[in-house]
Fold each of these.
Amino acid sequence: MNKFVEVKASTVDLAVANALEQLGVSRDRVQVEVLSKGGLFSRAQVRVTIVETILTKVEDFVNGILERMMLVSRATVTSENGTLNIEITGEDSGTAIGYRGESLDAIQYLVLTFLNQEKSDIKKVVVDSENYREKRKETLTALALRLAEKAHRTCRRIELEPMNPFERRVIHSALVDSEIADTVSEGEDIARHVVIIPKGVELKGDRRRGNNRSGKNNTRRDRDQKPRKEKKEVNYDDIPDGNVYSLLSEDDDFVKPAPIKTGPPKFKSFGGKKR
């Protein structure tokens, strides 16, 4: 059921403003019905009704999350080209960002889950606060360019730390037209990360198993190793009785240790003079 209030004031605009303040919503979330325009001896009267849309539902959902996080910040939801943009503002909005945007990513995931439950056709959601996404994009772009130069100079692959899809896309986009480095994503789930590979140079210290850049199989067994000796069969009937033997490895013969000494133990004296 839609929530509404009826408010009287000296003018229609003032009545609408008072109604929005009572409802705690913005103008684009309500429907206004003018009951009376007022006059010289009468006051204007309006009925303001909150219109439930997917945007208002998401806004209420995110604000509920912020309340449970004990934050006074609030979320504003807008839609543009099929993307749901959620902006969190307030005096403690920095807390909503979290370490490297982890809290924003968590809220973003919850919103996508909520949209799925609401059977909405919106597939892309961006949650931001204090322009963090743009600042992070600039930082990652500069990092990608710097590491690409390092990879090319040292002729080595450089693996970045695990990142979320947004940050990986920034790295790939920053080097998509690079003449000195390529990028690939490796790993699974939370370990998914970007690898920067230099172009036009011979890689150093590339000990990965599998196919190398030349297309040849470069597994550990293929590198000039001596063939392993065949394991020797042990005939335990040939071991003399009363002797102790041990097999050190599959490439060694039986080795006989030093004979075991018998008789009473001998003690060594320390500090005393011999009589």
Amino acid sequence: MLDIIDSADDVIAVCVTDKISGAELDTIMDRLDGAMARHDKVHVFVETRSIDGIEVAGLGSYAMRALPLLGKLDRFGRVAVVADQGWIRAATKIESALLPHISYRVFEPEGRDEAFAWVTGKS
């Protein structure tokens, strides 16, 4: 399930729980495309809770939309990931190492407010 979190126009902020569907991935991509059309830098806040999978049917479409973002990595600013599962925090740290010019921070659930303040530039 996907919840959009109210945030500044240059921040994509979402909370994902359980399983994410192809339609939800499309919603995230729509918001990201819109923010990138309006801003030079876009920041991302992702909170995950008890993730148990991604709907396979939506991955192909998502991959086709996400691939062009590799040419726009310099447009990403701060990325904060709040996760209650260690495997997501570990995967995010690996992604951060692969993309060193993007400023990533990983938080456990008790650091949620700090993460949101950081990604929105209020800390």
